[in-house]
Specification:
0% strand, mainly alpha, 185 residues, single chain
């Protein structure tokens, strides 16, 4: 039994080193944007992933998700060397939290694209806005069956809301007709 545990720990250490090496290879692309992960940054990113998976009760084989996040955000206009690793860690935590919150109703690739789009275009690089406004709206939309998650301006309408809107439109139409009649007189 002790030999089996030792073998598992050795395999885990080897797997982590391979994952670190894969993340460090991403520097070849991100260096053109002035963004470089150190071996310590890569190890912290893997640790963040492990904690996020544990906190959300998720299981994931391999670390491809982190690589996809690095690929997507490596060209961000809002990242610099000083905030790069910390932002990637926060994005990793957000990714797994949202996967749970949305009950996997969005694919990994679509979620990463959504995160990047919102981070760049709606949130001005603010992780607080991303987590607080955009991701809550995404989760609400997906829970209510709105699958066009890139159209975050879509309103969630309930039957009562639809009836109220119809009544409001009818009142506006009546008011317009009254004005037209007064103008004709």
């Amino acid at each position: 039994m002790e030999n089996t545990l030792s073998a598992l720990f050795a395999l885990d250490a080897l797997s982590n080193q391979l994952a670190i090496n894969e993340l460090l290879k991403k520097n070849e692309t991100t260096a053109q944007y002035g963004l470089i992960l150190t071996p310590q940054d890569a190890a912290e990113l893997l640790e963040t992933r492990a904690c996020a998976l544990n906190e959300t009760g998720r299981i994931e084989i391999g670390s491809a998700t982190i690589g996809k996040i690095v690929d997507a955000f490596g060209s961000s206009t809002f990242l610099n060397q000083d905030n790069y690793a910390a932002t990637l860690c926060e994005l990793t935590e957000l990714f797994y939290a949202v996967k749970n919150e949305t009950e996997d109703r969005i694919s990994d690739d679509d979620l990463i694209a959504f995160l990047k789009d919102c981070f760049e275009n709606r949130c001005g690089g603010s992780l607080e806005l991303l987590a607080g406004r955009e991701l809550e709206k995404l989760a609400d939309n997906l829970r209510f069956g709105i699958t066009d998650f890139f159209n975050m301006d879509a309103e969630i309408l309930f039957e009562g809301d639809l009836a109220a809107q119809a009544e409001e439109k009818a009142e506006e139409e009546q008011e317009r007709n009254r004005w037209e009649e007064l103008e004709l007189e």
